[in-house]
Design a protein that fits this description.
There is one protein chain. The protein has 180 residues and is α+β, with helices and mostly antiparallel strands. It has a single domain, classed as 3-Layer(aba) Sandwich (Aminopeptidase), CATH 3.40.630. 36% of the residues lie in helices and 18% in strands. The chain has helices at residues 2-18, 35-49, 59-66, 129-143, 158-166, and strands spanning 25-29, 73-78, 96-104, 111-120, 149-151. Strands 1-2-3-4-5 form a five-stranded mixed beta sheet, with helices on both faces. Strand 3 and strand 4 form a beta hairpin. Helix 2 (35-49) crosses helix 3 (59-66). The longest helix is centred in the first third of the chain and has 17 residues, at 2-18. It is globular, with a radius of gyration of 17 Å. 19% of the residues are buried.
Length: 180
Amino acid sequence: MRQLQLTRFLNFQWHALSNQLLAGYQLRTGSLRERATLVNFIQLSYHELFPEQNDFSHLQVTVQQYFSSATPLWWVDVNPVSFDYLPVVPPSQPVACLWLGNAVDQLKGDRHSHIFLLYVMPEYRRQGIGSALMRYAEDWARARGDRQIGLQVFQSNQPALNLYQQLGYQTQSLWMVKSL
């Protein structure tokens, strides 16, 4: 009974602190009803990296297949009482998101967290939001007992590579493709 009370207290404390992402921003849990917004954010991230490609509608299949209550989603909103110099964003429009899932370590067989998407709107970058979301993801993974967290990043996405390397992420494998 005492262990259960301690676990509930720690979960409450962690949840209370988790909404404090950065000054001027608020973190909120996404819901399954926000599939369209998630698809939009994924398409924005791919369009930035591959502007010559116009159709990313196939990414909707990824969301349909993998987005569930087992793959949590968080949104970052501008806190209504925030900074005057930030662009004005409607309250319903998030400025960043983090979508996590599960993966299996192919060497050890252990389940671990996997970052499906980390995206910050261009005008909100270089303010610490991405780093704060990565720390949040790591804390969430630790809290559920994971011993590692993974992600996939395009080799051409140098800003993301720099961020991940600064945070201590290392290349474990390379995904190679060949056009046929």
